[in-house]
Amino acid sequence: AEMNELELTGRARTHIVELGEPSCSLHYETVASLLAMRDAAAVDGIDLRPCSSFRDFQAQLIIWNRKWNGERPLYDRQGRLLQRAQLDDWHAMEAILCWSALPGGSRHHWGSEVDVLDASCIPEGYKVQLVPSEYVADGIFGKLTRWLDGNMHRFGFFRPYQNDRGG
After folding, report:
1. Can you state the percent helix, strand and coil of the chain, rounding each to 5?
2. How far apart are CA 119 and CA 101, in angstroms?
3. What DSSP designation does 125 have?
4. 113 to each of 29, 142, 156, 160, how far by Cα in Å?
5. How far apart (Å, rounded) are the C-alpha atoms in residues 103 and 60?
6. Nearest Cα to 83, choosing from 71, 65, 99?
7. Backbone angles phi, psi at 38, to 5 degrees
8. pLDDT tens for residues 112-154?
9. pTM (2 decimals)?
10. Cβ atoms within 10 Å of 112's Cβ, excluding its own
11. Beta strand extents in 59-138 (DSSP E only)
C-alpha cells in the first residue's frame, strides 16, 4: 500500500498499529512478519524484541536536537564515541547522520524499520546502546546477528544500512 506524504515523513500515524506484546508501533503490513520472525527466533532460544520501531517527526526531531546539543552521545562510523564540543557544525552533522536521519527523512517514520535485540542476553543493569560492537560476533547480541543473517530474509526483513557507502 502506498503511503501519503504525511505518513512518509512521520507527520501521521494512519498507517501504524500499536502492539502490546511485544510493545512497538509498526506499519500494519509489517506486524505479521515481525511476529512470525519473533516466534521463529524463540524456537532457537532468542527473545527477539523491538527496541525502536515507528517514530514520528517530533520524536526524530528530539533525537536530532539532543545529539546536536551534546545531550546524547555521538559516534563515528565505527561506533567510537565522539565529543560534540570538539566538532565543528559540519562534522557534528556528519556524525549525527551516520546513525540518525533528519526529521522527516527517517525510515522509522514508515513503521517498517525496526531495531531489535535479544532480551535474553541482557544482564541486569546493562544499558543497550545499539552500537556495532554489541552486534559483532563476540558482542552481547552476536548470536542474534548470526540468527538474523540466516533467517530475517524469510520474513521480508533486511539491513538497509549494512554496507556503508560513504554517505
Report:
1. 40, 15, 45
2. 26
3. T
4. 12, 20, 12, 9
5. 5
6. 71
7. -60, -45
8. 999 999 999 999 999 998 888 999 999 999 999 999 999 999 9
9. 0.89
10. 19
11. 74-75, 81-82, 115-118
